[in-house]
Amino acid sequence: MKNRISSLVFIILQRIRTKFYDALSTGHSKGRVTKIQPVLILGDGNIEFEKNVKLGYFPSPFFFNGYIHIEARGKISSIRFGEATHVNNNFVAIADHSSITIGKRCFIGTNVEIYDSDFHGIKISDRRTSSPDRARPVVIGDDVFIGSNVKIMKGVKIGVGSVVANGSIVVGEIPPGVIAGGNPARVLKAISTSA
Questions:
Q1: Is residue 181 within a helix (H) or strand (E), and if so which, with residue range?
Q2: Are strands 138-140 and 99-102 parallel, antiparallel or unpaired?
Q3: Average pLDDT for residues 11-16, to the nearest whole number?
Q4: Rounded to whole angstroms, what are the CA distances from 123 to 4, 120, 145, 191?
Q5: Contacts of 112 (CB under 8 A, 6+ apart)
Q6: Are 53 and 80 contacting, i.e. CB atoms less than 8 angstroms apart?
Q7: What does each C-alpha distance from 146 to 18, 23, 181 come to in angstroms?
Q8: Does the structure show a pLDDT above 60 at 195?
Q9: Are 141 and 160 in contact (CB under 8 A)?
């Protein structure tokens, strides 16, 4: 009985947190999405969810003490989630001046970060400005599995059916049907992409 009451309290608290983050969100999104963890949606750009996208997972780390951050900053920025993609807790995606496209049926682990931009320059005089020339689209193909704690940087393309190992930093193209890992991520071996 005690476990059942505790579970009910956690569910109620999480729903309150989710509504709070919905109220803080200033961005607009298109499509229906299942929010299991609180989600903050920001920016002037377009955010689109195809059907059966799920954001957050229970039980999984950071469920109660984190949130998902999705931001299409500029008016021409866009982020798109393909059908039946599942995103775990503490996910971050920021499209500053271009786009982030995530394919269908992807699995994305905890603490994954995806950025289309460097956001600012290296020189001291450039550190307070954001420029479109520092941004390049990110494209993640269908059926990609991204492990936890992965960072995907501007201009990255990940091919259909590939796997990115935990803790990797992806700065270049990953071909279809491979396992890639490391810092920077490199192809470790080919895998079968058939069902």
A1: strand 178-182
A2: parallel
A3: 83
A4: 56, 9, 36, 42
A5: 87, 88, 90, 91, 92, 146, 148, 149, 150, 151, 152
A6: no
A7: 25, 29, 10
A8: no
A9: yes
Residue 124 DSSP symbol: G
- Reading the block at residue 26, the tokens are 């200033």
| DSSP per-residue string spanning 55-106 | E--SSSTTTTT--EEEEE-STT-EEEE-TT-EE-TT-EEEESSSEEEE-TT-
For the question of residue 120 being annotated catalytic, the response is yes
pLDDT at 7 over 80: no
The whole-angstrom separation of Cα 151 and Cα 154 is 10
Retrieve residue 6's tokens: 């505790």
Residues 147, 163: Cα–Cα separation, whole Å: 8
Q: Which of 28, 86, 97, 120 is catalytic?
A: 120
pLDDT in tens, 62-81: 888 899 999 999 899 999 99
Q: Before 137, cis peptide (omega within 30)?
A: no
Within the chain, where are the H helices? Answer: 2-24
β-strand pairing of 157-158 with 138-140: parallel
